[in-house]
Fold:
Amino acid sequence: MSSVDSATSPSSNFEALFNAALEECIKQKGIDLADHPLAAKIDACGTVADVLDVFQEQAQAFDEFRTGDPRLIKCLKPVVGGLNSLCSSSTLSSGASIVSVRVSRDSLSQYYKLN
Structure:
């Protein structure tokens, strides 16, 4: 069991843990969350309600993204259908499968080298 220094406040403990997590994110993923545009929006908030408004905006944007734009799907249907036809061709499908296998193997080997 670790002892807690009586001079250390819970907020400074939280801040230390939060900063350590940010540093770990930079080290592992190469992403500095403090530079994210959402961080600037949250920093500009003056009240809890302002922060919740930012989160509400993000939730709505995510919901719109998740449900998708029907016009986009309508445009993509003929493209995907055409690609499917090309891949169904015996000449093209054998070449496509070779490329697909090579990419998969290369991707996997690079993934495991990084982790």
User: Anything to note?
Assistant: Residues 98-103 have pLDDT under 50 and may be disordered. The chain has two domains: 11-67, 70-114. The CA atoms of residues 36 and 45 lie 15 Å apart.
